[in-house]
Each structure stands twice: as C-alpha cells, then as structure tokens.
Write a structure and sequence with these properties.
By secondary structure, the protein is α+β, with helices and mostly antiparallel strands. It has a domain of 99 residues. It is built from 11 helices and 13 strands. Strands 1, 2, 3, 4, 7, 8, 9, 10, 11, 12 and 13 form an 11-stranded mixed sheet that branches. Strands 5-6 form a two-stranded antiparallel sheet. Strand 3 and strand 4 form a beta hairpin. The longest helix is centred in the C-terminal third of the chain and has 25 residues. The radius of gyration is 23 Å and the shape is globular.
Length: 352
C-alpha cells in the first residue's frame, strides 16, 4: 500500500484521497483499504529510516552535511487538533494554521535525503493574558527536537562532518551539544545582537562586542569567543543577494577553525538544499493536498509524502532530471492522455 499510495501522490495534480486512489486503480483496491492504511500505526523516523537507508548508504561520504530546519504544512481549512495548530511562520512574519515539522536532511553528492523528522504537537493549553484567549503549546521546545534529530542521525551511523541550520537554531546550547556530545562541527549564522569576545582573556574579563558593531575585512576569518560557549569559533561575514536584488550581510560562525572564508561560505550555501526539499515536498509529493481529519491519518499521510519525495530523489539520481521536470513530464503525459480520450469521444466542431 505504501508503494501504491506514494506513486499516487507523485502522479496527482490536485487533491488526494482514499476515493481518488481507489478510482485510479479502477476499484481494484477499495476506499476502505486505503483508509485503513492511513489509520494504521502512526509512522515515525524509524519507519522513514528503513525506507531511505539503502539510498543514504549508496551516496554517503565523510564530508556529507546534515541540515536541520523546520517548515509548516499549511492546513487553513482543517479542524484544529494537537497536530493542526497555529504556528509562527518567520518567512511570512505571521501565524499560520497547519503542521509544523522539523527535518534532518542529509546532503551528499548533490543528493538530499530526509533521514529523520519530527512533528510538533501542541498538547498543553495555556491562557494568553494579552489576547485573553486559551492557546496551545508544545511540551517540547524546537531546540530539544533539533537535538533529538541529531541524536537519531548519529545513532543510525549517518556519515556527516558538519551540521548546518539557520539562525533560529543557533543557540549556545546547540553549539555545545554538536561539538562536545556529538563530536561534530557546524556552520551557522548569528543574530546581529549576539556578543563576541576577541580572545579568551577578553571573554574571561567580560569584554564583549555586539556582532553588528564588528568591522571585518572582506573574505577573511576572525577567531572569536561567544558567551556561554567554551571553545573558539571562526567568524566570517557572507555577502549575499536577496530575491529582490538587494544585498544582505550574514555573519557566520563555524567550530572548525581550519576552514577558510571560501570553505565556510560554500559549506553554508548547501543549506539551501533544505529549502528546495520543502518546496518539492509540498508541490511534487502532494504534502498539502490531503483532506485527512485525524492526527493519525495526518501523520501517516505526512510520512507517505516524505517517502514520495525519497522516490523522486531516487528517480533524480537515475534519470539526472529534477523533481520539477519529472513532475512536468507526468503532467504532459496526463494532458496527452486526456486529449486522446477527448478525440475518441468525437466532440462536435464549433460553428465558424
């Protein structure tokens, strides 16, 4: 059923449902069979690992990177529950309703594969005095979920050297965890209000300077010490171009002091792979197109969409064609089939 359902998610261009899959297969599999599949035991990262492991082992190398980020599967019309809730979307600067999920994405040899995931569940109610409304919150923080995903990847012996993430996960606690507990390196951005010292002596004396006030020569590195981090970091300032053509500056720190400016910035550029993954998961694997109503069926549809993405990535490796090009080919074939069927019906020509 997982094979059939994931193929259906890849082939579909509109809403996906148990009835839709049953009709696609000419009722060879009933609507109830598909419903039972979605309502079965909730799938977890352990189930995903069994699916993705062979492909990971085929492409992994010691220089691979692990990228962690979160995103939101928007479900504006679905009833709220512990899984479907309101979350702040920093890319839109507002709250949206849906499933907030975190992914550990392994990137090696131009292949990007999800090796672990976690869905944010808001199981606790609390009263917000500002809005005077009862709201939901999670008992586990996102940073705790972040570290859990890293533990899973290490437990599964995924070969990687560097961890990449955006500024929302660049906490001192996460840096210490990666360096001391996992014995890995990282490259991550800093907020402009973070404070750094230029030597261990300055750190011990409490002499810090805000990142926003630093003057750093272009394309150079600067050894710095962060508050609450007991090892030195290498700081670089990356200049990048925004989608609107404007230029921005991003301060990056890495725990690997041997990295040059070019090496650090090129490593961090690999983080963009997870943005491509999020887009493909939503547009090519039908993540947001299911009308499932219960937390279990919503979880299992999410898991199936991840597996559909893995299938697409495997096809990309085999055919050297991107997910979006593969989906376009499927769409063109579907239009051709529809046109051929219309011709068979021999519609009356329009009067001149």
């Amino acid at each position: 059923m997982l094979d059939l359902y994931t193929d259906y998610l890849i082939c579909s261009f509109g809403q996906v449902s148990a009835t839709g899959l049953s009709r696609l297969l000419s009722d060879e599999i009933s609507h109830d069979t598909v419903t039972r599949f979605l309502a079965a035991e909730p799938k977890t990262s352990a189930h995903l690992w069994r699916v993705v492991k062979p492909l990971v082992r085929a492409v992994e190398c010691e220089s691979g990177v692990l990228i962690i980020d979160d995103s939101i599967e928007e479900k504006p019309s679905t009833d709220e529950n512990e899984l479907i809730s309101w979350h702040y979307d920093h890319s839109k600067d507002r709250t949206v309703k849906g499933i907030n999920f975190l992914t550990a994405l392994y990137h090696s040899c131009d292949v990007s594969l999800p090796v672990a995931f976690d869905l944010v569940t808001k199981t606790q109610d609390y009263f917000d005095p500002k809005t005077r409304r009862t709201k939901r919150k999670s008992a586990v923080t996102k940073n705790e979920r972040y570290r859990m995903l890293l533990r899973i990847a290490v437990h599964n012996e995924v070969k990687f050297r560097y961890v990449l993430n955006d500024v929302w996960f660049a906490s001192s606690e996460n840096m210490l965890f990666i360096k001391h507990s996992l014995h890995k390196e990282f490259v991550m951005p800093l907020k402009e209000n973070r404070k750094v010292a230029f030597s261990l002596t300055d750190k011990q004396g409490g002499h810090y300077t805000a990142v926003s006030l630093l003057t750093l020569t272009a394309e150079t590195t600067q050894e710095v010490w962060l508050e609450e981090v007991d090892f030195p970091l290498s700081l670089v300032r990356e200049v990048f171009t925004n989608e609107d053509g404007t230029r921005g500056v991003r301060p990056l720190v890495t725990s690997d002091l041997a990295l040059s400016f070019d090496q650090a910035t090129k490593l961090y550029q690999k983080r963009w792979s997870i943005e491509v993954y999020h887009k493909s998961l939503k547009q090519n694997a039908s993540l947001e197109k299911s009308p499932t109503r219960t937390p279990t069926t919503q979880r299992n549809h999410f898991f199936a969409a991840l597996c559909a993405y893995v299938k697409l990535e495997g096809l990309k490796v085999k055919t050297k064609v991107s997910h979006f090009s593969l989906k376009s080919k499927l769409y063109l074939s579907a239009v051709k089939a529809a046109y051929a069927e219309l011709v068979k019906l021999n519609p009356q020509p329009l009067a001149a």
